[in-house]
Amino acid sequence: MSAATPKHPHPDPLPGRERERTVQVLADLPAVARAAAERFVALARDAAAARGRFTVALSGGSTPRALFQLLAGEPFRSSVPWDRVELFWGDERCVPPSHPDSNYAMVRTALLSRVRVPAENVHRIPAERPPPEAARAYEETLRRAFALRAGEWPRFDLLLLGLGADGHTASLFPESPGLRADDDRLVIAHYVEQLQSWRISLTARVFNHAAFVVFLVCGADKAASLRKVLRASTDPQQLPAQLIRPRLGTLLWLTDREAAALLDEPGG
């Protein structure tokens, strides 16, 4: 079982404290998905060999779907020790697990229906329950799965994230209650005004205790957002993705040329 990470006395991300941040620009979505699949396989094999299990929090969206479809086929499928993989979710819409908008449903269709992950290793967010209840239940799931004591945080081997055109990541949206810096919860449920709906998400502090965080960003509609998150002054209330800066881990941005198109502009 992975060792829990003690709560740092100053758990918020600080400038320059992350171990590594890399931006890798690739040709297109298939190339991004392949690079992510190769990283997934390498981390899974290393973690399974070192600690007997590989813990990963998954993301929704079209780019992660392409990744999961690759992982479900050869040569990647036979390269992953699926019996030692433990799957979690970084966020979820408040819908039943069979709903077409469910992140879990997407992963089930693209990946879980084609690989052999033990049922007890699949830790979905119970988003069909009332949102605050679902968030509390998922926090308890994390505490049990990582054997956390009071004041400890889970340390995922890999955490996958996407980026919204408004600068959000997971279900942490601009000006949303989930961005509060004084919140010690692992999981939040909050009402997102701009979507007129509830969302459940791991908190930024959980993301920042991961060993390896990968952002998957593709498409021209993400170019302005990516430039702001990576180049603009820090303003996490407006650009929540800027909160993600692992304190003792690696941060990797995998992006296609369309999404990265504005990064080299003057002033970018």
Q: Helical amount among residues, as a percent range?
A: 25-40%
CATH class category = Alpha Beta
pLDDT averaged residue by residue: 91
> In the residues, how many domains can be counted?
1
Q: Please report the distance between the alpha carbons of the first and last residues.
A: 43 Å
Strand content: 15-25%
Number of helices: 6
How many β-strand runs? 11
| Most strands sheet | 6 strands, parallel
Salient structural properties:
single chain, 268 residues, alpha/beta, Rossmann fold, six-stranded parallel sheet, three-stranded antiparallel sheet, 6 helices, 11 strands, 26% helix, disordered N terminus
What features would you describe in this structure?
Helix content is 26%, strand content 20%. The chain is an alpha/beta fold and 268 residues long. The chain has one domain (19-256): Rossmann fold (3-Layer(aba) Sandwich). It has a 6-stranded parallel beta sheet with strand order 2-11-10-7-3-4, covered by helices on one side. A 3-stranded antiparallel beta sheet has the order 5-9-8. The chain has a two-stranded antiparallel sheet with strand order 1-6. Helix 1 crosses helix 2 and helix 2 packs parallel to helix 3 (103-112). It is globular and about 45 Å long. The termini are far apart.
